[in-house]
Specification:
alpha+beta; OB fold (Dihydrolipoamide Acetyltransferase, E2P); five-stranded mixed barrel; 1 helix; signal; DUF5666 domain-containing protein
Length: 105
Amino acid sequence: MKNLKKISFLGLLMALVISCTTMKNDTNGAVSGKVESIESGKDGYTAKITTDKKEVYFATISIVNVGGPQNYKQVKIGDVVSVKGEKWKTDDENHIKVTEIVSVK
């Protein structure tokens, strides 16, 4: 009986560990859409991007995260952008830490 409890506990623990490791952030996510607003920050800005599917993402764009000033671009409200980076979701918001600005139109 003790062994059965130990095996059951071990199985439950393994299931928990496996489920937690599959809930990682999307490190190679991409977002494309129209810039709706911009909020300036210390070394960059956060752009609110609305996709064609009406999803809203808050894209954090900083000089450090895009690899330096040579890769950094300032977008404007109304621009259509495509960015790549680490995506994550809070309770009611989608976010992306931009590591590459693919295009600005």
